[in-house]
Design goal:
The protein is of the alpha/beta class. It has 15 helices and 28 strands.
Length: about 550
């Protein structure tokens, strides 16, 4: 017997035997549901035999048989009724466990979000994407899907989604393109570091979404529930179905605030802040301005995260403000990094180390924030140094800047598009999906080994647009992505270390060294960040103006 837990109240299993009833009782099960019709296999005990053996162990049993491949709506209702009436925990079984898992998924459709159902069944080893449309429809078989059809569907209207829509529309003006995103507001997230440093106003980083959708592109203001790549379909909340000829997936990351125990309850209060949220970045600056002394902790979770330099940017700008006000000597600054290095590309580390020394920052590597007590002003870190047993340490704070753990959105992680780690599985050069030829991905959600930054999306958008256009024209992909990402490290007000690099940490500077030497702090890089990049974003990137991002061409290998 090999039960797999879906919830605390239900586990599912392949075919069980009469002898398994003793073990089922020992494992704490109080009821059995048989979802396999009698006589389906020669080695299969009848339900009557299972029921008698269960009764001998003091367990109840229920017969809810389902023909393979024919799970009807009435079957799901019968399963739901059985689960309501039987004492738990319950063990349900069929030949492989798939029918039992499917019945549970459909029976929970009205009470649980689709991604949660798909995640639970996937964790147990059962793929429910084949019935995702039914789950999204409240567990009922859709009778009228009302499908819409587009040449290209783009999921996500962040930096990557709007940019690739504009770039593709510029190449193929007659394409029928739909952009799916439920948000009302679009944010220039790279600006939040500057908000937290008192340089930008928060409203300068926000625009109404409708004003940014490229002309001629349909905006479907809805959330995505699931993908059906075999049917070229995207399922929206409410079981609306959008069909596509080609699909581009770029929904961004999920900030997993709840993964840190106690964090959600204290964000924006008790000295707990984060530049990773629009409404919290101003609180960072408020704290920096009012502090006269004490301990300030800046955290960085395990990779991957949006802009690996952002946790340090907040720290350096805060320290610089305290230095200018003459209170730095009374500050105790701690940088608690879950990783083992200051920055992943070694060429930029010497310049950063000088600022660490200048500000008197204490570096604590392999420290991952796991819990926070806001009223008590304490933070607990799991310390996992190489070749040592993990320990936990608790530190007091007066201010703490928290960077949340970051994962792919739930509807991505449980989808057929994801790799084993939950990221959209693409070829790192062409950004085309490895298994589905008519799907591409860009931005933070795909699994190419590049830095997750807006600058990376700015480079990726023309690559995807060109390769989709090539595919439409019946040609092989002609553009390749070199892994470019940029992280303007704001080391003080007025100076930036402009980190620009590609796959493998290769330096990919955009300017000659005489203008900007990215490995050294410079005023020119600050002016780029403060004055030039915001209009480049709003007026260039989001409008399909591919300034300084001409895609590299795929070169044929010599035979």
């Amino acid at each position: 017997m090999d039960p797999k837990s879906l919830t605390e109240a239900l586990s599912v299993s392949p075919q069980i035997s009469v002898a398994d009833m003793v073990e089922a009782k020992a494992q704490g099960f109080r009821a059995i549901i048989c979802n396999r019709p009698d006589g389906e296999g020669a080695d299969q005990p009848s339900f009557d035999e299972i029921e008698a053996a269960a009764a001998a162990q003091g367990m109840e049993a229920r017969y809810v048989p389902v023909t393979p491949g024919l799970v009807q709506d009435a079957d799901a209702e019968a399963m739901a009724q059985a689960l309501r009436e039987l004492p738990g925990p319950v063990l349900a079984y069929c030949r492989t466990g798939t029918r039992s898992a499917t019945l549970w998924a459909l029976s929970e459709a009205k009470s649980r979000p689709l991604p949660e159902i798909l995640a639970a069944t996937k964790a147990a080893g059962y793929d429910m994407n084949g019935v995702a449309r039914r789950i999204a429809n409240g567990g009922k078989t859709p009778t009228d899907t009302g499908d819409a059809q587009y040449d290209v569907v783009i999921v996500g209207a962040g930096a990557g989604g709007i940019s690739v829509a504009a770039s593709l529309k510029a190449r193929k003006p007659d394409l029928d393109i739909a952009l799916i995103d439920p948000a009302d507001i679009h944010y220039y997230q790279p600006g939040w570091t500057m908000v937290g440093g008192g340089i930008f106003e928060p409203q300068d980083t926000a625009r109404v979404m409708g004003s940014l959708i490229p002309r001629g592109v349909h905006w479907l203001k809805s959330a995505v529930a699931a993908f059906e790549p075999a049917n070229n379909a995207v399922i929206l909340d409410g079981c609306r179905v959008v069909k596509y000829t080609r699909l581009i997936v770029t929904p961004g990351l999920k900030l997993d605030w709840a993964k840190i125990d106690g964090l959600v309850e204290t964000l924006g209060r008790n000295g707990v802040t984060s530049n990773y949220r629009y409404d919290l970045a101003p609180y960072t600056w408020e704290l920096v301005q009012t502090m006269r002394g004490g301990r300030a902790i800046f955290t960085q979770p395990p990779m991957p995260i949006k802009c690996a330099g952002a946790p340090q940017k907040a720290m350096y700008l805060s320290a610089d403000a305290w230095l200018r006000r003459g209170v730095l000597k009374d500050m105790n600054i701690q940088f608690n990094n879950a990783g083992g290095v200051l920055f992943g590309v070694k060429d930029y580390v010497p310049a950063l180390e000088k600022y660490v020394e200048k500000y008197g920052i204490n570096l604590n590597f392999f420290h991952n924030l796991v819990a926070i007590d806001g009223p008590g002003k304490t933070a607990t870190f799991r310390v996992s140094k190489p070749d040592t047993e993990p320990t936990e340490v608790t530190m007091d704070f007066d201010m703490i800047h928290v960077v949340p753990p970051q994962v792919a959105p739930d509807f991505i992680r449980v989808s057929p598009l994801a790799d084993a780690a939950g990221w959209v599985d693409v070829d790192q050069a062409t950004l085309r999906h490895k298994s589905h030829d008519n799907i591409w991905s860009l931005g933070d959600v795909m699994n190419a080994p590049n830095a997750k930054t807006a600058a990376a999306a700015r480079m990726q958008a023309p690559v995807v647009a060109q390769n989709v256009a090539d595919d439409i024209d019946g040609r092989a992909p002609s553009a390749r992505y070199n892994g470019y990402g940029s992280c303007p490290l704001t080391v003080e007000r007025g100076k930036i270390v402009l980190a620009e690099f590609g796959y493998g940490g290769a330096l990919l500077p955009s300017f000659p060294k005489v203008l900007i030497d990215g490995t050294k702090p410079s005023r020119a890089a600050w002016l780029l960040k403060e004055k030039l990049l915001p209009p480049v974003y709003w007026k260039g990137m989001l409008r399909g103006k591919e300034w300084m991002v001409t895609p590299e061409k795929v070169t044929a290998r010599p035979s």
